[in-house]
Structure formats: C-alpha cells, structure tokens
C-alpha cells in the first residue's frame, strides 16, 4: 500500500505543478497581449482606449501626459523578447520588449512591468 500512496502524492504534486505552469503561462500571455494592444493603440493617442491599459498609482503620470511624451519620442513596439512572472508578486509579469524610439531600436530591450489591477492587466512604464 505504501507504493500506492507514494504514487498518489506524486500525481497530486504533478497536477499542482501543471496548474501552476498553466496559470503562469496564461498570465504571461495576457501581459504580452496587453503590451501589444497598448502599442497598437498608441498612435491614436486616445486615453479612453489607452488609459485602461496603463497602471495607476505610484509614479505613473496621467494618461494624457504619458501618451504625449511617448508620441514626442515616437515609441513603437518592435517585438516582445520574453516575459516571466515577478517572483515577488503573482499579479505582476515582467515583459522584456524591443522598443523603437524616434525610429531607432535600442540595443537593450525595455523592461515593462505589467500588473493586474481592477480585473485587467496594465502596463507600468
């Protein structure tokens, strides 16, 4: 009987690991999708669309001010390099993205913090 119990523990642990992996994958996919949608909508400058995708609180400036500065520098998403959960907070995904500024792609990817706030994912620059 000991073998059966050990197998049960192993299977239970494997199921928990699979659920954690699935949860992490769904979070990183949602965060990446938010970053992509944000940059796709950025040229419009419409804070009715962009505002709900921007994190609030802390050092974040009002949408109009932040978007105006992004437009002034011609920010554009080139591609997402990788994303991973922030080990300190399960509601935060760190997304590394290549961003062009004034038409020039930086040598290093930007690190964007994407947070779950108010039931959705929001980008903090």
Automatic annotation (TrEMBL):
Top-level taxon of the source organism: Bacteria
Protein name listed in UniProt: Lipoprotein
Organism: Myxococcus fulvus
